[in-house]
Amino acid sequence: MEYQVNINYRFFAESLKEAQKMARLYVRHILNPKPMPDSACSPLEIAQRCSDFRKAEKEHFCVFHMDTQNKIINREIVSIGTLNASLIHPRECFKTAIRQNCCSVIFVHNHPSGSLEPSAEDITVTKRLKNAGELLGIEVLDHIIITNESYFSLKEKKLL
Fold first, then answer.
1. 66: helix, coil or strand?
2. Which helix (H) or strand (E) is 120 found in, with range?
3. What is 43-153's CATH superfamily?
């Protein structure tokens, strides 16, 4: 989980020793790290959250489940396929989303070949998933292809 600490604290002290004491007290009693909300702001951030399978030798198909504010509820790997294919079905892709009352989803899969270009099947599957999502009332926000080097967002390229 990502955390944030904001430090904007100025003070005066009579000596270095007193300043060190005041700084320690400030850190101990006032400065509290707070978890940042899991919000998906960009395809890059989503791709970075998939570092565990960027270099995988088999295709992994992953779903990010989102709430009404596009905050991530959870991430689920739906399928692990072969070197160049992943068997997926809308039933598996939306099962957890329905159970958790998700508002939307983001799909991610890796290309072990290193090519970022979506295959014809990638585009067909994305359209099929988008249509299924529309029937279920669950919006498909994006489908992102990742490699070890980069990512490709079908939404950014207007293929979704």
1. strand
2. helix 120-136
3. Cytidine Deaminase, domain 2 (3.40.140.10)
Distance CA 107, CA 93 (A): 9
Would you say 46 and 22 are in contact if contact means Cβ atoms under 8 Å apart?
no
Q: Output the CA–CA distances (angstroms, integers) from residue 67 to 43, 141, 147, in the order listed.
A: 17, 12, 27
**What is the DSSP secondary structure assignment for residue 53, as one 8-state letter?**
T
pLDDT-derived band at 137 (thresholds 50, 70, 90) equals very high
What is residue 109's DSSP assignment?
E
> Does the structure show a pLDDT above 90 at 82?
no
At residue 47 the predicted structure's pLDDT band, cuts being 50, 70 and 90, is: very high
